[in-house]
Amino acid sequence: MSDLIHIDNLSLSYDGRTFVVHQLNLHIAAGSITALVGPNGCGKSTLLRGLSRLLKPSNGAVYLSGQAIHAMKARDLARQLGILPQAPTAPEGLTVHELVAQGRYPHQTWLQQWSQEDERVVQGALEMTNLTLFADRPVDTLSGGQRQRAWIAMALAQQTEVLLLDEPTTYLDLAYQMDVLDLLEDLNAEGRTIVMVLHDLNQAARYANRIVALRGGQIVAQGSPEQVMTPENILQVFGLRAEVVTDPITGTPLCLPVGRRGSRRARAASANGSAPAPQKVPGDLHHA
């Protein structure tokens, strides 16, 4: 896979002085699913805002297909790159259909406003997110999970080559989380490049080709799930002891956090002779 997005020495801040992301370099391949993971405040969402031109770089640049995104016309960028930000809000009274239809705006011109193709795409996005029956409902009357799916439908209606999603499974119960991630995997199979922020490491390992682990606005580890999901990296990024085993369903890495309670139980079992003592992880933060 060739690089579609190139991040070159990127620094991002909200006040021009305190960097949230600092001198970051990253390549994102066309046709890949990349998951950004890391603790709260590490710069995941800020990086996504930088990738989408919602935040102007303090230094460095982001290139899409070799072109600096800040040199592109807004409509041209919106035809290639769509974003679902964290906790978006819709104008009061806007219906689900009207919200999803906003995704077609980059494809409109003065000569051609709404077309049958636009309506077909919107209906398809509603169907893919199981929202057809809610099309005429105001967005602000929906549950949190339904609202999240409506915003995802809008991003799908935009029909961009690249989708950026900031915690797309927020507010969703487990079944809908799987539905959304399966949908993104299907879109990826059709050729879309997806970059998403995820808090769940096991979901990241299942659905991403590549994981980028951040801490303090910089990359700690990047690569395949097998390369990134190691006890050492999890300890370094999250300050958490964990065991990593093979997921019996997908064969991908599966993170089993130990935590203080797990450590106490393991020590107690070891003292009783019912289980081997837990192996020490280099640099362990939770000392006996």
Highlighted features:
288 residues, alpha/beta, Rossmann fold, six-stranded mixed sheet, four-stranded antiparallel sheet, 10 helices, 12 strands, 33% helix, 25% strand, disordered C terminus
Write the layout of secondary structure elements.
Blueprint: E1 3-13, E2 19-29, E3 33-37, H1 44-51, E4 59-64, E5 67-68, H2 74-80, E6 81-84, H3 96-101, H4 116-128, H5 144-157, E7 162-166, H6 174-189, E8 193-197, H7 201-207, E9 210-215, E10 218-223, H8 225-228, H9 231-238, E11 242-246, E12 253-257, H10 259-271
Parallel strand pairs: 3-8, 3-9, 6-7, 7-8
Antiparallel strand pairs: 1-2, 1-4, 4-5, 9-10, 11-12
Descriptive notes:
Helix 4 packs antiparallel against helix 5. With 288 residues, this protein is of the alpha/beta class. 38% of the residues are buried. The strands form 3 sheets. A 6-stranded mixed β-sheet has the order 6-7-8-3-9-10, sandwiched between helices. The protein has helices spanning 44-51, 74-80, 96-101, 116-128, 144-157, 174-189, 201-207, 225-228, 231-238, 259-271, and strands at residues 3-13, 19-29, 33-37, 59-64, 67-68, 81-84, 162-166, 193-197, 210-215, 218-223, 242-246, 253-257. Helix 6 (174-189) links the parallel strand 7 and strand 8 (193-197). It contains 10 helices and 12 strands. The chain is 33% helix and 25% strand. The chain is globular, with a radius of gyration of 21 Å. It has 2 domains: 3-223, P-loop containing nucleotide triphosphate hydrolases (Rossmann fold, 3-Layer(aba) Sandwich); 225-288, no CATH class.
